[in-house]
Recover the amino acids of this structure.
């Protein structure tokens, strides 16, 4: 295995490269390139059942605009 400035290449017994590992802390400029190609860098949001139900209600139109001044009275 050879390593140069945050890149690590794993090779087969015959010397052909098979995997390349990139240290994204050293090469943060590659993150937008990876994201534009479909990689998810940030962990996905874990939605709870209550949040999913709220989104479904909002999609059906079952919501109303709240008033900040009368928040506690509603």
């Amino acid at each position: 295995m050879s390593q140069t400035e945050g890149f690590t290449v794993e090779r087969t017994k015959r010397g052909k490269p098979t995997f390349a590992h990139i240290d994204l802390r050293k090469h943060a400029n590659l993150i937008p390139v990876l994201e534009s190609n479909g990689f998810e860098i940030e962990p996905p949001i874990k939605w709870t059942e209550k949040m999913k139900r709220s989104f479904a209600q909002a999609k059906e139109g079952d919501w109303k605009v709240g008033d900040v001044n009368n928040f506690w009275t509603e």
